[in-house]
Design brief:
This protein is α/β, with parallel strands linked by helices and about 400 residues long. The chain is about 45% helix and about 15% strand. It has helices spanning about 20-25, 30-45, 50-60, 65-70, 75-85, 90-100, 135-140, 155-160, 165, 170-180, 190-195, 200-205, 215-230, 250-260, 270-275, 310-325, 350-360, 370-380; strands at about 5, 10-15, 75, 105-110, 130-135, 240-245, 265-270, 285, 300-305, 335-340, 370, 385-390, 395-400. The longest helix is centred in the middle third of the chain and has 20 residues, at about 215-230. The radius of gyration is 23 Å and the shape is globular.
C-alpha cells in the first residue's frame, strides 16, 4: 500500500515508498511536531550526562573561585587568565559556560543588556559577555579542602561525590584532560584522549558491535527524512539533480528519490563507504572526498555533516559545494540540515538540548553554531544569502544561495 503525504505550500500529493520505516506509520498517528517533541524528550534525557560533565569541568578548573576573585563578575578571557587555563581552550570553555548558564549555575549578561535574561533565553556568549555568580556557584567557591582536618567542609564536597559516576566515565576524563592541555595539538580531540587515541571514525569502523555509530546515524535519517518531506518537501521541488555529500549508504538520498522520481540523486562518500553501498537502487554512488571536489548538481545536500567540523573545514567544504552548483537564478542552492542554536522554540528543554549536544559534538572537535556563527562561514565561503527554516525540533533546514 502506498502512503501519501501532503506538502502544505503546494497542496499536491507526494507518493512515498512505504519501506521508509516506522516514522511513516507514526506520522499516521501523530503530527510531525508531536514526534519531534517526543524525540526532543529522549535526546534531552540522554544528553543530561553533559550537564554533570560541565559542572565537573567547572569545579575541576575552579571557575567559581576565579569569578569570585575577580569581584563576582568577569568576562571569559578574564576567567581564562585568572584560572590559569590555556587561551586555546577559550572557545570550548565558552561552550561549557553556556551549559552552566542555561542550567542556572551562573548567569550571563551582555554590556548592552539591562539585566540578565532568563536561562531559557540563549544570549550572546562572546568575549564581552560578563559571567556572574549565583547562589549555586557561590557554594562552589573555596570548596576544595576534602581533608578530615577541614573545620567547615564545603557543601560542594557532596556534589563531587554525586558526580563520581560521571567523572569516572571515559568521555568525562577525556574532556577534563582536554581543558588541562597547555597548547593546541592539531588533529587531537577529547574523544581521542578518552579512547587511547582512537577517533570516533576509527571506533565506528572497527568497533561497530559496541559502538554502533553508523547504525545510529542511519536510524536518525530514517526518523527525520519523512518529517523533512512532510514539513519542507518544497525545498526539493523543481530540482533535477541532488548530491548528498557524505551520505553514507544513501538512506536520505533514497527517500528523496522515492518522493521525487524525476530527481537524480547521487551520494558522495569515501571509497571504503561506497564499496558497501547497496546495488539496484535509484541512487548513484560516487567515491570521493568532499574536501577535494563535489560532483555537479542543481543542489547539494548536507545532512548533519557540517557540525562535525571546525570553521576552516566548513568553509572549504562549502566552497567546493559552491563550485558544484549553478547560480541562484538557475536554481542552484545548498540544503543543510543542522542545528542553529537559539533558533526555534525557547522552552528550557529545547535550549538545553541544543547546548548539551554542543558539548557532545565538542568531543570530536565539532561545533553547534548560532546564526551569527553560521553567517560567518557562509559569507566567508562566498555565499550571498541564506534562509533558516526552524521546523525540525532542535534542528533546522537552511537553504544557502550562491
Amino acid at each position: 500500500m502506498s502512503i501519501w503525504l501532503l506538502i502544505p505550500s503546494k497542496n499536491q500529493p507526494l507518493k512515498i515508498d512505504p519501506s521508509i520505516g516506522a516514522t511513516m506509520a507514526l506520522l499516521a498517528e501523530y503530527s510531525s511536531q508531536e514526534l519531534l517533541q517526543a524525540h526532543l524528550l529522549l535526546w534531552h534525557q540522554s544528553l543530561s550526562f553533559f550537564k554533570s560533565a560541565a559542572l565537573g569541568i567547572a569545579m575541576d578548573l575552579r571557575i567559581a573561585d576565579a569569578v569570585h576573585r575577580l569581584g563576582g563578575a568577569a568576562t571569559l578571557p578574564q576567567i581564562v587568565a585568572e584560572a590559569g587555563i590555556s587561551p586555546c581552550r577559550l572557545r570550548d570553555l565558552r561552550r561549557v559556560m553556556r551549559v552552566l548558564t542555561v542550567s542556572g549555575i551562573f548567569i550571563v549578561q551582555h554590556p548592552d543588556e539591562v539585566a540578565p535574561l532568563p536561562p531559557a533565553a540563549v544570549t550572546r556568549h562572546d568575549d564581552a559577555a560578563v559571567y556572574k555568580l549565583t547562589a549555586a556557584s557561590c557554594l562552589l567557591v573555596g570548596g576544595h579542602d576534602s581533608s578530615p582536618a577541614a573545620i567547615h567542609p564545603s557543601p560542594s564536597l557532596s556534589v563531587q561525590l554525586f558526580l563520581g559516576p560521571c567523572l569516572d566515565s571515559p568521555v568525562s576524563r577525556g574532556m577534563h584532560a582536554w581543558f588541562r592541555q597547555e597548547k593546541e595539538q592539531p588533529g587531537l580531540a577529547p574523544f581521542a584522549l578518552a579512547y587511547s587515541g582512537k577517533t570516533i571514525w576509527d571506533r565506528a569502523e572497527h568497533e561497530a558491535t559496541v559502538f554502533p555509530f553508523n547504525d545510529g546515524m542511519a536510524s536518525d535519517t530514517a526518523f527525520l527524512m519523512p518529517i523533512v518531506l512532510k514539513e519542507c518537501g518544497e525545498v526539493f521541488r523543481g530540482l533535477t539533480s541532488l548530491v548528498d555529500v557524505a551520505g553514507g549508504l544513501g538512506g536520505a538520498a533514497a527517500i528523496a528519490a522515492a518522493a521525487f522520481p524525476d530527481l537524480k540523486c547521487t551520494v558522495l562518500d569515501l571509497p571504503q563507504v561506497v564499496a558497501k553501498a547497496p546495488t539496484g537502487t535509484n541512487v548513484q554512488y560516487v567515491a570521493g572526498d568532499m574536501f577535494e571536489s563535489i560532483p555537479p548538481a542543481n543542489a547539494v545536500f548536507l545532512k548533519w555533516i557540517l557540525h562535525d567540523w571546525g570553521d576552516d573545514e566548513c568553509v572549504k567544504i562549502l566552497k567546493n559545494c559552491k563550485q558544484a552548483i549553478p547560480p541562484r537564478e538557475a536554481g542552484g542552492k545548498i540544503i543543510i540540515i543542522d542545528m542553529v542554536v537559539g533558533s526555534g522554540p525557547s522552552d528550557i528543554k529545547h535550549v538545553e538540548t541544543q547546548v548539551l549536544y554542543d558539548l557532545l559534538i565538542m568531543n570530536i572537535n565539532g561545533v553547534e553554531r548560532d546564526e551569527e556563527e553560521w553567517k560567518k562561514i557562509f559569507f566567508e565561503a562566498g555565499f550571498k544569502d541564506y534562509k533558516i527554516i526552524p521546523v525540525l525540533g532542535v534542528r533546522s533546514i537552511i537553504e544557502l544561495y550562491p
